[in-house]
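Page header: ASSEMBLY MODEL / two components / 677 residues total.
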Amino acid sequence: MSQSVDTSQGIGRNREAYLSVTDLVVRFPSEDGIVHAVEGVSFSVQRGKTLAIVGESGSGKSVTAQAVMGLIDRRVASVSGEVWLDDEELVAMPDEELRALRGAKMAMIFQDPMSSLHPFYRIGAQLTEAALVHQKLSKSEARSLAIEMLRRVGIPAPSQRVDDYPHQLSGGMRQRVMIAMALINSPALLIADESTTALDVTVQAQILELISTLQAESDTAVILITHDLGIVADIADDVVVMYGGRLVEAAPTNRLYYAPQMPYTLGLLTSVPRMDRERVDRLDPIPGNPPSAVNLPAGCVFQPRCTYSDRVLDGACLTANPDLIAVEPDHYVRCHLPSDERRRIADGVLASLAGDPG
Amino acid sequence: MFLLLFLLSLTVFFLFNLLPGDPARLTCGKACTPAIIEANRHRLGLDEPAPVQYVKFVTGIFVGRTFSPDSPKPIICNAPCLGYSFTRHESVMSLITRSAPVTFFLAIGAFIIWIIIGISAGIYAALRRGRWQDRVLMTISLIGYSLPSFFLGLLLVFFVIIKWQLLPFPSYVSPFENPVQFTQTMILPWMVLAALNAAFYVRLTRNQVLETLGDDYVRTARAKGLPERTVIVHHALRAGLTPIVTAAGLDLAYLLGGAIITENIFSLPGLGALAVNSITDSDLPLIAGITLLTASLIIFANLIVDLLYAVIDPRVRLA
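Prediction written out in full:
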């Protein structure tokens, strides 16, 4: 049945995957103490596939992405674990080698397109700059590449737009420029960190569709970081749920939606507004606030907000951090509840979500 | 800007008319009789109503004017005429043009030194934030910032010139006449002025760079895989420079109006020294002339800074 995984090893390196993260730990010193931003997170993603990392603000999902990209200042923060990108280990890699991979083999799109582009440079200059660091091109070749990329991301009149400044474009257009910039060196890994959060809903859908299209064209591995389970269902192949810097549940998307096990995932599912449900009750939000990354609870990180922790014997939720358990070969859960109890709770919650009063 | 200059000239003019003290009385020496005072008042054109005087003052700036035209010895003051100092028997403009180069060389020299030192040390401190290099620089800058310039100036005069005799006593000559003596004279004043300002610019630059290094577009630049040098110089610094340009423009304009304390310590015959002397002598036309000039410099510098903004920040061009 369920097999226990040694938490110090996490999920283990997946050699078939393009990116495989094993037991990633990121800690920052701060005036209040050490910030445990990411504590032993493991996941992997193959080319052509999409992995969603879901969690609330402060769950460590953005820090995880930045650690993969090598954007965490290692002179300040301590980063440990393993990050394998196409047979190269990034955590122990010297800064200069890592820099050569950034933007070339892996690229990232950020949350706020308003502030992520440099306000003083024309978008063409910012695009060609990204191309010229990694490719041997002449200036005019780089410029035509920039125009071609703008055309691919659906910017009208790209040969004129290339000379615009960021402030002359709308938010959606700027995010398209960011995508063009991220993809200009055809990276095999694209990380989108809350890339649609700052945009209108209609524009959100366009941007996500654009990412999917470009992903299919060049067989890119995509990591989608979001707090919105609603957008995950349509595009992600696998989902990793993070809470308090830890991975609390990981599963293929369908499984996570139809057979979730961790109470936090259930909480996330019940907090999504659904228009296709007859129920007109209020949403069911998770009570309380995420834990402080400085003073993590001694036991399970989710225990203070968990409605079911009293069903665990001996108060184990208060004292021991639960191990990550593989309930299925590709479904991992971090919870002290017995497996039949977890399933019973999940069935009840899913039934009530489906509109069944039982 | 022209409105501002107009209001400025009006203010300066009437401010000095309202001041207590009779300029006509000041023009005659010990053997003074009311008759002489009245005659002088007429000679200076001070018996006319204030608005007429103002119009003559302003037209003088553009086309020149003649004082006491009906007397046997009229005084011709060519445009731009800022007035005539009856205490010094010389036109205000020629007094200023004699002092201005001294101040100009003093200000420009100090400006170049402090900009180079201040900005580069500021960047360095920002990149070494929290480490000993940063702390040492910040402590030096705090000391430099709190040292009054007269103290630092006198200290340098005492040690470098008097005690160690590394440099001769300052005596200003034009750089075109005797470049060696010019440099020997100016080097200490430059250092005094630069030290004070550099201390401020180190802090300003450090804060600006630290602020922009945390900005989203700098993270984007890193994510592109740009070399750290490009990230800092092209992305962080370029954006952080705007407030530094403002401060530098205004500070330079302010200095061009005369560095009173420094000029006095090193007995440089610049605008600052001239201003102080004109005040001790109650030489009203000269005070008014210098005030008008320095205030115009500040207004002009503001204009230049605004124009530079448009060069630096494309968002300003459309606004």
